[in-house]
Amino acid sequence: LAFCISMKNQQQVWFDAIRKVIGEQNVNDFYDISSTLGKGQFGTVKLAKHKKTKNLQAAIKQVTKSNMKPIEVY
C-alpha cells in the first residue's frame, strides 16, 4: 500500500508540473487531430498535425478514463 501511495504522489507531482508548463490548455488548441493509427486496451491513437507549423506530426493517445482503475488515471 505504501508503494502505491508513493507512486501516486510521484505521478501527481509530474502531472502538476506538466499542467503548470502547458497552462491547462487543450491538445485541440495546438493540433488538428485526424485519422486513427491504432486502438488499444485504454484508448485510441490518432494522427495529429501541429496547427502552427503545419508540418509537424504527432501521435496523440485518447484515453477513456472510465475503463481504467483509479491508480491508472494518474
Layout of strands and helices, then pairs:
Layout: H1 2-22, E1 31-39, E2 43-50, E3 57-63, H2 70-73
The quaternary state of the protein chains shown equals single chain
Order of helices and strands: HEEEH
> So how many helices?
2
First-to-last CA distance: 16 Å
The SS-based structural class is alpha+beta
Uncertain residue segments: none
Characterise the protein shown here.
- The protein is α+β, with helices and mostly antiparallel strands.
- 34% of the residues lie in helices and 32% in strands.
- The chain is built from two helices and three strands; from the N terminus they run H-E-E-E-H.
- It has helices at residues 2-22, 70-73, and strands at residues 31-39, 43-50, 57-63.
- Strands 1-2-3 form a three-stranded antiparallel β-sheet, with no helix packed on it.
- The two termini are 16 Å apart.
- The relative contact order is 0.16.
- The model has no long low-confidence stretch (mean pLDDT 81).
Structure summary:
The chain has helices spanning 2-22, 70-73; strands at residues 31-39, 43-50, 57-63. With 74 residues, the protein is an alpha+beta fold. The radius of gyration is 15 Å and the shape is flat.
